[in-house]
Amino acid sequence: YHFNSAIVREPSRSVVDGLRAEERGSPTYEAVKAEHDAYIAVLRTAGVEVTVLPALESFPDSIFVEDPALVFTEGAILLRPGAASRSGEAAELAPTLRDMFGTVLDLPVGFADGGDILPTPKGVMIGLSARTDRAGAEALIGCLDKLGHKAELVATPEGVLHFKTACSLLDDETMLSTARLARSGVFKDYKQIIIPEGEEPAANALRINDILMVPSAYPRSLEFLDKHGYKVIPVATTQIEMIDAGLSCMSLRW
Ligand code: CIR
Question: What predicted TM-score, i.e. pTM, was given to this entire model?
Answer without folding.
Answer: 0.97
